[in-house]
């Protein structure tokens, strides 16, 4: 670890860590990674993204200047990070029971994606909110990956699919991908 360089305590497969890695890549912030186990620890990291936005607003703004668009970004981000993702986390799935986990995850993700697709009908441009990348987009990609992991049928969500495909083509989303992290097991590496 280099002195003065930010350190991200990260788990390669964590949606929360992935969102922060995308923000760091978009903002061109060099950082060290300190791998942690989410079985022992974890937590939401949208506060980190907001901190990065407030302290380093360039080269990419993750919250629009326009208050209405900023509210839409926060609405979408909160829906994903607070309304969908926590319900399919390991701690919740353990309580649901092994035999019901897949069905539970598919139901909560599908329900959340129905609401999200409806919101995106009025907010989306090239990205979740208009034509500028935002914190909402950082939340979308990891959640779509979770949906794919749980074999959710994504065909009813054309806007989500289109935006996800556009974002995955960007370098920041590629370098932050779980398959490219220092703690990714060899069999899961890209």
UniProtKB/TrEMBL annotation:
Keywords: Phenylalanine catabolism, Tyrosine catabolism. This is maleylacetoacetate isomerase. It is an enzyme of class 5 (isomerase). Residues 4-122 form the GST N-terminal domain. The lineage of its organism: Eukaryota, Metazoa, Chordata, Craniata, Vertebrata. Belongs to the GST superfamily. Zeta family. GO terms for biological process: glutathione metabolic process; L-phenylalanine catabolic process; L-tyrosine catabolic process. GO terms for molecular function: glutathione transferase activity; maleylacetoacetate isomerase activity. Its cofactor is glutathione. It catalyses: 4-maleylacetoacetate = 4-fumarylacetoacetate. The keyword Nucleotide-binding does not apply. NCBIfam families: maiA (TIGR01262). The gene is GSTZ1. InterPro entries: Glutathione-S-Trfase_C-like, Glutathione-S-Trfase_C_sf, Glutathione_S-Trfase_N, GST_C, GST_Zeta, GST_Zeta_C, Thioredoxin-like_sf.
């Amino acid at each position: 670890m280099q002195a003065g360089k930010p350190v991200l305590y990260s788990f390669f497969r964590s949606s929360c860590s992935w969102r922060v890695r995308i923000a760091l890549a978009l903002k061109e912030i060099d950082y060290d990674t300190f791998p942690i186990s989410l079985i022992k620890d974890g937590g939401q990291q949208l506060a980190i993204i907001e901190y990065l936005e407030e302290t380093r607003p360039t080269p990419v703004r993750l919250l629009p200047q326009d208050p209405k668009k900023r509210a839409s970004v926060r609405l979408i981000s909160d829906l994903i990070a607070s309304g969908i993702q926590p319900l399919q986390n390991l701690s919740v799935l353990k309580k649901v029971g092994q035999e019901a986990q897949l069905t539970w995850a598919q139901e909560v993700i599908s329900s959340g994606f129905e609401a999200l697709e409806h919101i995106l009908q009025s907010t989306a441009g090239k990205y979740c909110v208009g034509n500028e990348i935002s914190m909402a987009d950082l939340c979308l990609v990891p959640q779509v990956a979770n949906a794919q992991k749980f074999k959710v049928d994504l065909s009813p969500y054309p806007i989500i699919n289109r935006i996800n495909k556009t974002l995955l083509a960007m370098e920041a989303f590629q370098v932050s991908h779980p398959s490219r992290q220092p703690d990714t097991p060899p069999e899961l590496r890209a």
